[in-house]
Specification:
The chain has 284 residues and is mainly β. The protein has four domains: 6-67, Nucleic acid-binding proteins (OB fold (Dihydrolipoamide Acetyltransferase, E2P)); 78-138, Beta Barrel (OB fold (Dihydrolipoamide Acetyltransferase, E2P)); 153-211, Nucleic acid-binding proteins (OB fold (Dihydrolipoamide Acetyltransferase, E2P)), CATH 2.40.50.140; 216-281, Winged helix-like DNA-binding domain superfamily/Winged helix DNA-binding domain (Arc Repressor Mutant, subunit A, Orthogonal Bundle), CATH 1.10.10.10. The chain contains three helices and 18 strands. It has a five-stranded antiparallel β-sheet, with no helix packed on it. The chain has a five-stranded antiparallel β-sheet with strand order 8-7-6-9-10, with no helix packed on it. The longest helix is centred in the last third of the chain and has 14 residues, at 219-232. This is GntR family transcriptional regulator.
Amino acid sequence: MLKIGKYNNLTILRDTKVGLFLGDPENDPEGIHDVLLPNKYVPNEFEIGEEIVVFVYLDHEQRPVATTLEPYILLNEFALLRVNYVNKIGAFMDWGMEKDILVPFKEQARPMEKGKRYLVYLYMDPKTNRLVASSKTNQFLSNEEIALEKGEEVDLIVSHITEIGINVIINEKHKGLLYKDEVYDDSIRTGDRMRGYIKNIRPDHKIDVALQKQGYESVEPNAEKILDELRASRGFLRLNDNSHPEDIKTVLKMSKKTFKKAIGALYKEKLIEIKEDGIYLVKA
């Protein structure tokens, strides 16, 4: 069975004038769901019977077609895409395919504009059986059943940024919040992907996340980060216990509290010296 909007591992069945026909003989012996790989995507060398990985989507006539192009987004996933043009139907976004993906007006969180990028979710419209995208991402997320634990490492996608904090999508399933006063990187933007940690799961099912491990576990990776920065700076950083939090944030993208814990651990291991003008890497 073909997986529309996904990568498929298919067998080359026959070579024709228009391209290769691919299928899954084991699960579809009658060839009901064979799909065409047009000539322009056919590899220079191939053999009948060998397997090939292709992306399958719907062409202009809503027929399944295979391609070796790599899409920017897969079915039931999120991605930041650019609007190519807008017409009376909706906005059409570049997703790496020849045919742009449609975001109907009713699926736009706010009116989309040509040339701008928006975070969208790709899904199969049950009414039309067409692949479409939506920037109303909350409808595809749920915090009702949360199979996560405090301290667990997770994948994050930045959804949107508010005065309170950075709204994120957790593991492409749940909504979460990263508080602004705990973020030490001003370059974070909508669509950014990063690793994070579950900080708290509240009784109302709201989830707080952090970019660094909490408590003692956070010392080791941050200590390594400081060592890397020292090595890149010829063994000296003009930072110490008395440095302004903003200076620490600018150089190391971490809080002063985290910085003090990390250099304390490094000092105990005799890897650095802490002096009035900064910290020095102890040469082995």
